[in-house]
Structure prediction request, 245 residues.
Amino acid sequence: MATTGNSPLHQFEIHTLLPLSAGGTDISFTNSAAFMLLALVLSTLFLVLGMRKRALVPGRWQSMAEMSYEFIASMLRDTVGSDGRRYFPFVFSLFMFILFGNMLGMIPYGFTFTSHIIVTFAMAIVVFLGVTILGFVKHGLHFFTFFVPPGTSPIMWPLMIPIEIISYLSRPISLGVRLFANLTAGHTMLKVFAGFVVSLGIGAGILPLAFVVALTGLEFLIAFLQAYVFTILTCFYIKDALHLH
Prediction:
């Protein structure tokens, strides 16, 4: 449903930039797709250009690229162990894509594609299916023992196993909704307070302006934290698939 330009929800509308169709299916290139592509390009340039000199004493750009690399590498080591190194490219790409997507949404007139449940849920489903397949490849049918809490009496299995299965199946929902809800709520709040500043004017709008400044700083922090939370939960899911309990 279309919204007016003054609505806090107007910033989440998807607009067609290049109409396309295939077999009667709408595959138009939208502002959401454009910002996804931009996040991919910028994250790639950040790493490639940051490491192009490979200086022994790194500059600021190279230091940020190296810190990003080590941040995810240490996260995998701490949660998954040495077995997690082979999954570093996927986890690191996921983190950088979400982080740049969140940060692009902080730019005025930018678009936050991570504020759309279809995007966050799609990423969550990829993670969920990937770790489930990994669990079956690693353990075969023994993977089903994951749904039996260790030390649980067989008498409690009829109660505990359905709870564990429901908890496992809810992972992509909680993973996708968490990212979507936090980004949507934060940007909506910013838009509401920004509207107060405009409607109240310079004098009376000082207090809402102070809230906007404070919320903007908080949103930058949340943009990073939500990328971190999505990524570290992915690491824990990989750990569960590899080591079970």
In short: Strands lie at 16-18, 21-22, 25-26, 29-30. The first strand starts at residue 16 and ends at 18.
